[in-house]
Amino acid sequence: MRRSMMGAAGFLAVALFLTACSGGGDGDAEAEAGLRGCEEVFGAAGVAKVRAVVGDNKFRGVSTPWSSIARAMLKEARQYDPDGEDWTRSRHEPCELSANGIELRRIVEVHVKWSVLTMDTLKTGADRGKWTKEAQDVYVYKRADARTIKVIVPCKVSGTAPEQRNALPLEVIAYTSSETGAEGDSLAATLLPSLVRNTQKHLGCEKPVSVPDALVP
After folding, report:
1. Rounded to whole angstroms, how far apart are CA atoms 173 and 62?
2. Cβ-contact 41, 195 below 8 angstroms
3. Hey, how many other C-beta atoms are within 10 angstroms of the C-beta on 158?
């Protein structure tokens, strides 16, 4: 009996040791899955760039599936009525990264949504002086004091009114805080092109706009 109890105790000690060495098990797997999801948003190079800026300690990712974002945004777009009343646009955050316990939204925050501006407003409206035309149908706005960069491109999706392409364009926003220092602008510039392209792809934008590799005016 004594030998049996000693054997059980030894087995328990080994099990506890292995659990401690494993370092988190499901938590680590979940974080890795989140990082892979973020790579689908920004590309592997974009995530690597963020890691290089914010550090490798406790680098984690939480991502929202593209299928979920696309489903919500397509539903909104198909509710658009050129003769009806305007409605509130929802913002979606495809990916959140963290390092050293600091959430990336404190360092870089990105959102995708349908814009309240129209393509005509960008070209001829009161806001046209605030936006830079970086390429055909690609407009960029950078507010230096708030370190905010916005990109608007037209995106016609299936099942919507023809006017939706120009009246309800796609808007992508990146905010970089002072914690990123001088690298903040380059970080946003690295992430935005991939984010715009991937958003167009997952929404199924008809005739997607060609987005240049550099978007910071």
Report:
1. 18
2. yes
3. 11
Q: How far apart are CA 170 and CA 112, in angstroms?
A: 7
What confidence tier does 13 reach under pLDDT thresholds 50, 70, 90? very low
User: Which phi and psi (to 5°) does residue 11 adopt?
Assistant: -60, -40
Cα(54)–Cα(169) distance, rounded to whole angstroms? 32
Q: How far is Cα 150 from Cα 112, in angstroms, rounded to an integer?
A: 10
Tell me the C-alpha distance between 184 and 190, whole Å. 10
Q: What is the spatial order of strands in the sheet that 132-135 belongs to?
A: 108-114, 170-176, 148-153, 138-143, 132-135
Taking phi over 0 as left and psi of -120 to 50 as alpha, with beta for the rest, 25 belongs to left
Please name every residue paired with 62 in a beta bridge, in sequence order, or none if there are none.
Answer: 96
For the segment 25-75, what is each residue's pLDDT rounded down to a tens digit? 556 777 778 888 889 888 888 888 888 877 777 788 888 999 999 999 999
pTM of the model: 0.80
Q: Please, what sign has the CA dihedral across residues 162, 199, 209, 215?
A: positive
Residue by residue, DSSP assigns 135-204 as: ETTEEEEEETTTTEEEEEE--B-TTS-TTHHHHS-EEEEEEE-GGGTTHHHHHHHHHHHHHHHHHHHHHT
Residue 127 CB neighbour total at 10 angstroms: 14
- Residue 63 and residue 34: Cα distance in Å, rounded? 5
pLDDT in the model for residue 51:
84
Of the pLDDT bands very low, low, confident and very high (cuts 50, 70, 90), residue 186 is confident
